[in-house]
Every structure is written in structure tokens, then in C-alpha cells.
Amino acid sequence: MIALLFDIGSTFTKVTAVDCDEAKLLGRSAAPTTINTDVNEGLKQAVTQLEDQIGVIADRADFKLACSSAAGGLKMVAVGLVPGLTAQAAQWAALGAGAKVLQTFVFKLTKQEIDKISELDADIILLAGGTDGGNSDTILHNARMLARSLLDVPIIIAGNKAAQDEVSKILQAAGKDLRITDNVMPQLEELNIEPARETIRALFLERIIHAKGLDTMQRFVDRVVMPTPSAVMDAAQLLAQGDGKDKGWGELLVIDVGGATTDVHSMATGDPTSSGVVLKGLVEPWKKRTVEGDLGIRYSAASLFAAVGEAFLLQIGKELNPNFPIADGNLEDFILSLGRVPSEIYTTEKEIFFETIIGRAAVTAAMNRHAGRLEQIFTPHGEVFLQRGKDLSQVKKIIGTGGILVHHQSPQDILAGAIRPSGEKTLLTPLAGEFFLDKEYIMAAAGLLAKEMPKTAFNLLNRYLVAV
Amino acid sequence: MAEKRTIILGVIGADVHAVGNKILEYTFSKAGFNVVNIGVLSSQKDFIEAAIETDAVAILVSSLYGHGELDCQGFRDRCIEAGLDNILLYVGGNLVIGKQNWEEVKERFLNMGFDRVYPPGTLPDEPIRDLKNDLGLPD
Ligand code: B12
């Protein structure tokens, strides 16, 4: 059987042809995405290029699936009650469904915040708040505020079960398009994001694809099944857990350093790895994704520079090559230029070196936000440690994906930013790493196959992720 | 029967004494409360956020290791700030170090805004009765 797997990105439309029985890559190609005119043009060009390489394929393919992050990807707004509790749970549900979370709102929504939500132009609003039987005032207030607004955005209700009927009545009466699903946090600090995630995905298929004009491409694609980050996450999960027959790789990290964002996925429990540590707060999802909108190495290079600071970048430069001269201001000029020519692939020694520095800084900063932390508490009895978030100390397999890493000469130098510096005591980032690269862009493709052909997908990942 | 009332239980500050906390969880649950136990090493913020999300009617704070007074300062103010205007606050355990005059200790905690303060070695029956009383529930 032959599968054609498409990834319709914001800049490039990629197509991968796979022989499913052999779990072999037959070929792949990419063409500029043409979502603003007719998405089919880009698809056609990508397929034509592929057929130039490997001969007729579109007519021989048994199925054609696509994931997409074009037209802004899946954009969501999350609403919850307390920042570290239901609001956090709602945010994770959205991120876990492959969405871009534009903003998370907490407590009672104000008029200004409703205006802000309207401006944000989200595809879906996820409305949570209160444990089951817990607080209902806030979610009811927020439902009324949304009901009164002119917002024409589908709303998913995933809050306090006891308030569900009334919340839906309020929104229904206002003619809002809504879906009801289970509470993202039914009991205090107990996460239940799978139902919300499923509802988001279903809504994506039902409505969003149409709204973005992605349902006009039947000619090349049977169906768009999920947002691209979701496909990458499914691939990561399959790789970690195995296909049911063959054992997976175990706990792992996937890092995508992009031009605009840096995404980190961890497939790991994150339980404390040393004794005498007490876990506090919301237990985080095994399959956790974070997206850092200010840490990218093209469009977001300036905000990355602001976030990490020049001193940190210079320090990385020294670690990488003590002899490389970085004249004052040089690095900053380069960073500012990155945003201006986002599609540039850098070739000179200096450019590559600088790109390594900022890539590594993006990875470090994104990992530091993704991983949990230890808080040391001095008690009369001696010291105790509180852990918030996931302990990733012992996670070793680190996979880099995305165009920037793939085109880079030494992606391992960038990925090494994920490793905890010696002497660091509070951050729970990995202590050591084995690095892999998604050289053939196999992750999104394998993610598309993960559900229906886990064996093929798993074997593809095993074969085409290469150690670096 | 009416819906179960939710209470938050926990041990405040850098205190790891867990046994009394477990006993309180068990006995208050048996007495018909929905107990949300946030356990040892809990900060004021942990208690308050838990109470907000779960719509709790009372917070029961334990402190066994002698630093209760410091750890509990400003608790009521923070509750008010967080919109928990009417929540009941109980505190118990070994609240202070050494043998101090109980009435004085109790007074200090009442002044901090706690509704009820319990001396060392209090058995659960008394606070359970008090809580039902304070909430207007039948025994
Ligand atoms: C076991 C124990 C420990 C164990 C705890 C193990 C664990 N994880 O639970 C360990 C060895 C770790 C420990 C450490 C320390 N301990 Co110690 N510990 C005890 C001991 C012997 C028993 C505690 C116990 O479990 N009691 C049984 C339970 C059922 O009773 P309870 O906790 O008092 O709770 C009941 C009531 O008080 C009440 N209650 C409690 N909270 C509340 C709250 C409300 C709202 C209400 C209504 C009621 C209520 O209801 C509970 C059920 O009936 C006591 C002495 C004692 N006999 O009490 C000392 C004691 C509590 N520890 C003490 C001290 C000083 C310490 C240390 C600072 C140093 C040390 N000497 O070892 C460290 C502190 C560590 C830390 N960071 O918290 C002192 C505290 C002194 C003070 N407050 O003035 C005590 C009293 C011993 C003493 N006489 O010196 N300890």
C-alpha cells in the first residue's frame, strides 16, 4: 500500500510518499503553500515535483492524508478560573490538541477582556473553571459575558459539571455554536484533558478546516486529519510507547526550533527522581507540549534576544568556541537581521556559528520553561524539596525536528541547549542527552499514520530518525 | 440528603507531620464532608487556590512543628483578597513552640482572623461538631 502524506505548513507544503508494507520512504518534496489563493496550487506543485523524482504516485496512492498549520494553524483562547489550576488545565488541553494558545484568561472576564478576545480572532474558545461541584460563579459569569458579546466563535465548555447545564443554556440562548465535554480538572489538581482534546480535534475537522478553505483540496487529499503539531505529538507518543508489539524508545523529548516559536514535547511522567522530594500542584500531562511564542530564530529573534539577554548568548558562544571572535554588537546586528530575511539559509562560518548560538539559547529557554523546578525549603528538621512540574532529569532521548534544525550543520550543538548545566540545582531539565534528528521530516508523516497503521508509523520513525 | 460541603485540609509551611492530617481526612470524610486534602508542605496560596476552584466552605489548617504563628500570618487577609469573604478558617496542631499559655495563643490566632483555634491533641469529634454547627448543618 502506498500513502501520500501532506503537511500544509504556513510557508511550505510538504508531501511524503510512503510504502506502508515496507515502511519505506519513496520520496518527498516541498512547494510554497498557496493558502491565500488556492491551496491546491501548492499541493499540485509539490506532487508534480515528487512525480518528477519517482514517477507517477498520486494515482497509485491508496490513501492521502494531510495535517495543516496553514492559515495561522489552529488558534485558541483558553478561559479558566485560577491561573495554576483550571486555567492551566484548559491551556494544556488546547496545546495538547495541537492548537496555538493565543492567550489564557483567568477569573471573571471583564468587558475589556471580551474585546481583547474578539480582537484575537481565535478559531475556538475553551471555557473551563471550577472542579466538579466546585466554583460555578465564575464560569457562569464568563458564559454570560461571552453570550452578550458579538463573538462568533465556537465555544467548548469543559468546566464544573454542576454548572454545565446552565452554562450551555446561557450560551445557547445567545445562539453560540457550542460543544460540551468533561471538565478539564474534575477534582483539585487532577487533570482530565483527553475529552477536551478530542472535542477540539473533532471541531477542527468539522468546522475549522472548512473555515480555512482547506476542504477544497479533495483532488490530492482524502482528508485533513489534524493540526500539524498534533501529528508530531502522536508520532512522539508512538515512538515512546511502541506499537504494541515492538517496544518503544521510552521517555523522550521532541524539540522544534522554529522561526517564530520553539515547541517542546515531553513524553514522560516527570515523577521525582530523587528521594525526599514532595510533588506539589497540578500533576502535569504525560504527553506535554509547550509553545514559546517569543523564542524563535527568525521572526521572533528579537524577542528571543530580549528574553535571554546578550550576556547569555555570549556565554554560549564562548562555550562553543572560546576562540571565535564575537565583536560587540555583531551578534545583536545579526539577530536583528534574522527577522528581516526569514527564509535565508545561512552559509558563512560566522552566520552558522551565530545561528547555533541563538538556536541553543532558544532550546535552553524553552526547556527551562517546559521542565519542572525544585524549590528548596529549610525546615527545623533539615532541608526538604518541593517539586512543581515535571522532573525530566533522566530523560535522555532528545529529538530535533523542523526545517531550521534539519538544514543546520550541527543540530546537536543546538539541541545540547536542553541539557542542564552542571551545578544547576533547581531546574529539572535532562542531565544528559542522546540526540536524534528528524532529517526526512518523518514525524508529521508518521503521526498521520499513527492511529491506522501504528506498525508502519513506528518502523518509519525507527528507520528515519538519525542519531546526530 | 443535601450536597456534601467541601472543605480544604492541609499542613501549612515547611511542616511534614502527616499523621494527624490523614486522620482528619478520614474522620471528616466519614462525617459527611467532601474533603480536599492538599497535604503537607502547603503554602497559604495552595490553600486559597484550592478553596476557590472547589468552592470550599472551610479551610482547616494544621501546624505541628511550632512555626504556625509565622506561617499563618495574613491568611484571612489573603482569603478576603481572593474573594473568599465568608470562608471558615480553623487551625490546630502544636501551633507554637514550648509551653505557652493556651488562652493567649488562642487569642493571637483569633485576632489573625481564624474562626476556631484548637489546642494540641484535639480529637476530631469536637471540630466536626463545631463545623456542622457553624454551617448550620444537622448533627
Ligand atoms: C512523628 C513525629 C515526627 C515525624 C513526622 C513523620 C511524618 N511524616 O508524619 C518526624 C520525625 C519527621 C518529625 C520531625 C520533626 N518534628 Co516531630 N513529632 C512527631 C511526633 C512524635 C508525633 C506526631 C504525630 O504523628 N502525632 C499523631 C497525630 C495523630 O496527632 P497530631 O499530629 O497532633 O494531630 C491531631 C491533633 O493535633 C489535631 N489537629 C492537628 N491539626 C489540626 C488542625 C485543625 C484545624 C484541627 C481542628 C485539629 C488538628 O487532630 C489530629 C488528629 O487527632 C510529635 C510528638 C507528639 N507526640 O505529638 C513530634 C512533634 C510534633 N515534632 C516536633 C518537632 C520539633 C519536630 C522537628 C522540628 C524536629 C524534631 N524534633 O525532630 C521536625 C520538623 C520536621 C518538619 N519539617 O516538619 C515537636 C513540635 C514542637 C512544637 N510544636 O512545639 C513535637 C510536638 C515533639 C516535641 N514534643 O518536641 N516529627
Number of domains of chain B: 1
Which CATH architecture of chain B is right?
3-Layer(aba) Sandwich
Assembly annotation? heterodimer
Largest sheet of chain B: 5 strands, parallel
Q: What's the number of extended β-strand segments of chain A? A: 19
Beta-strand portion of chain A reads 15-25%
Order of helices and strands of chain B: EHEHEHHEHEH
Distance between the termini of chain B: 13 Å
What is the percentage of strand-forming residues of chain B?
15-25%
Distinct small molecules bound, one entry per kind: cobalamin
Number of helices of chain B: 6
Give the tally of structural domains of chain A: 3
CATH class of chain B: Alpha Beta
CATH H-level homologous superfamily name of chain B: Cobalamin-binding domain
- Side-by-side strand order of the widest sheet of chain A: 14-12-11-17-18-19
Low-confidence stretches of chain A: none
- How large, in whole angstroms, is the Cα Rg of chain B? 14 Å
What gyration radius of chain A follows from the Cα positions, in whole Å? 23 Å
Number of strands of chain B: 5
Largest sheet features of chain A = 6 strands, mixed
What can you see in these coordinates?
The complex is a heterodimer of chains A (468) and B (139). Helices cover 37% and strands 22% of the residues of chain A. Chain A is built from 15 helices and 19 strands. Chain B has a single domain, classed as 3-Layer(aba) Sandwich (Rossmann fold). Chain B is built from 6 helices and 5 strands, in the order βαβαβααβαβα. Chain B has helices spanning 19-30, 44-54, 68-72, 75-81, 102-111, 125-134; strands at 6-12, 34-42, 58-63, 88-93, 116-117. At the A-B interface, strand 15 of A face strand 2 and helix 2 of B. The complex binds cobalamin. Cobalamin (B12) sits between chains B (14-20, 23-24, 60-62, 64-66, 90-94, 97-98, 118, 120-124, 127) and A (379-381). Cobalamin sits between chains B (14-20, 23-24, 60-62, 64-66, 90-94, 97-98, 118, 120-124, 127) and A (379-381).
